């Protein structure tokens, strides 16, 4: 297919293309895909500038978790170049004291036990309770985390700590925004996504049942159905 539409799949903290494996399988035949990895960065704007350095003139964005924070910087920096804009399991709120404490605990855990300890602590919190015995899913997430190093974790947490209040961007976004969230997302709960939906001029919200924070991996069929539908909609 000549001139296939170009789509960025933006992964979250300590994640890479593995988080999008099931989406790549269904999208790659009709889309040109690019999955940046955000190792070595310590600000969301720098991550977004990196994405723009890889981008053609026009592109669509599908983003998960921290990747959604990067996506928000992209739509601030280059709104006229973006066709479709879809985010999932993410937030736009400013830093909270609870988040700062949570991030500090992650850094302390990493200092004591490395990223292996981070993964073992992180995974049960990130996935739906029904998947706590899914060893294949847990190993896939664990392996992805371990492809990073401590400096990557530190940089990404620094980016989160220093971020702008992206909720201020929402009233200025005129794109139709697709929003996806697991109904049991502990990291960025559905209430945050409902708030984004209400603050945006034009958005679609889908809450996926029996799903935690890792929606692309936990419920790939539901996510894929939404992506295939939303990426075919007329550009707004």
Describe this structure in words.
A 6-stranded parallel β-sheet has the order 2-1-3-4-5-6, with helices on both faces. It is built from 9 helices and 6 strands, in the order βαβαβαβαααβαβαα. It starts with 5 loop residues before the first strand and ends in a 6-residue tail after the last helix. The chain has helices at 21-27, 44-54, 66-77, 97-126, 135-146, 150-161, 190-199, 215-218, 220-230; strands spanning 6-10, 32-34, 59-64, 82-88, 177-182, 203-208. It has one domain (1-236): Rossmann fold. By secondary structure, the chain is α/β, with parallel strands linked by helices. The model has no long low-confidence stretch (mean pLDDT 96).
Integer tally of domains = 1
User: What separation lies between the terminal Cα atoms?
Assistant: 24 Å
- For this structure, the CATH topology is Rossmann fold
CATH superfamily: Alpha/Beta hydrolase fold, catalytic domain
User: What is the CATH architecture assignment?
Assistant: 3-Layer(aba) Sandwich
Major β-sheet strand ordering: 2-1-3-4-5-6
Q: Please identify the top-level CATH class.
A: Alpha Beta
State the major sheet.
6 strands, parallel
Percentage of residues in DSSP E strands: 5-15%
Report the count of strand segments. Answer: 6
Give the structural class. Answer: alpha/beta
Task: Report the average pLDDT across residues.
Answer: 96
Q: Tell me the number of helical segments per DSSP (H or I, 4 or more residues long).
A: 9
Helix content: 40-55%
Rg from Cα = 17 Å
Global geometry = globular
């Amino acid at each position: 297919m000549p001139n296939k539409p170009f789509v960025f799949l933006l992964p979250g903290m300590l994640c890479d293309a593995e988080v999008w494996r099931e989406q790549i399988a269904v999208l790659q035949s009709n889309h040109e895909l690019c999955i940046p990895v955000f190792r070595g960065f310590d600000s969301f704007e720098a991550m977004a500038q990196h994405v723009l350095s890889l981008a053609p003139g026009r592109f669509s964005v599908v983003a998960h978790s921290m990747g959604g924070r990067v996506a928000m910087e992209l739509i601030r920096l280059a709104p006229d170049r973006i066709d479709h804009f879809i985010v999932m399991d993410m937030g736009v709120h400013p830093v909270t004291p609870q988040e700062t404490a949570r991030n500090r605990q992650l850094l302390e855990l990493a200092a004591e036990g490395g990223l292996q300890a981070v993964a073992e602590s992180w995974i049960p919190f990130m996935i739906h309770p029904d998947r706590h015995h899914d060893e294949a899913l847990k190993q896939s997430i664990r392996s992805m985390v371990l492809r990073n190093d401590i400096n990557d974790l530190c940089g990404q947490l620094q980016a989160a700590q220093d971020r702008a209040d992206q909720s201020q961007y929402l009233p200025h976004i005129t794109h139709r925004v697709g929003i996806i969230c697991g109904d049991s997302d502990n990291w960025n709960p559905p209430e945050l996504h409902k708030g984004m939906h209400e603050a945006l001029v034009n958005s679609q919200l889908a809450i996926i049942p029996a799903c935690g924070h890792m929606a692309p991996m936990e419920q790939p069929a539901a996510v894929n159905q939404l992506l295939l539908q939303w990426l075919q909609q007329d550009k707004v």
